Each structure stands twice: as C-alpha cells, then as structure tokens.
Amino acid sequence: MPEEYLPPIGGGRQGGAYPDITATKDGRTLRINSVDMNKNGTPTKRERTNAARIRQQTQGDHLLLIPKNN
Q1: Which of 31, 47, 59, 63 could bridge to 19 as Cys pair (CB 3.0-4.6 Å)?
Q2: The pTM is what?
Q3: Strand-pair partners of 63
Q4: d(CA 47, CA 9)
C-alpha cells in the first residue's frame, strides 16, 4: 500500500503531510506519527505544529503521536 499523502489545506506546495502509519477499519481511520520530543517529554514545537495541521486536515480521525528513540 502506498504511503498516504495529506495535501495542504487550501492548496499550494507547503503544508502537506505524510503520516508514518495509516490504518482504516469499519470507516474509522487511525494515523500514527513518530515525533521528536523535548527533554520534558512533550513533542517539540515543530512536531506540535505538524500534529495540529494533520488533525485539521483529517477532522474526525484519530492521530497518535509516539516518541522517536533519540
């Protein structure tokens, strides 16, 4: 199965996303992204911004963020 691409909201060339894993069952979709973390255990600002954009692009679906092994 090809990698999922989420095009930018409103078109253009910037702001698209490639979730790491996408799974759909019974009409429900789960997307999983591995993210860089701050020392305090929260996603970095860049990762939070990307997650917010993906959530806006896929309203009603679930996005799970998992820490990358640093």
Answers
A1: 31
A2: 0.83
A3: 31
A4: 18
Which regions of 1-70 does DSSP assign to beta strands (E)?
A: 21-25, 28-35, 62-67
Alpha-carbon dihedral sign for residues 66, 62, 51, 45: negative
For residue 60, give both structure tokens: 């009603």
Per-residue tens of pLDDT for the chain, all 70 residues:
678 999 988 888 888 889 999 999 999 999 999 999 999 999 999 999 999 999 999 999 999 999 997 6
Instruction: Measure the CA–CA gap between 4 and 15, rounded to whole angstroms.
Output: 14
- Rg over alpha carbons for the chain, rounded to the nearest Å, is 13
20, 32 Cβ separation under 8 angstroms: yes
Query: Residue 29 corresponds to which tokens in the numbers above?
Result: 């979709």
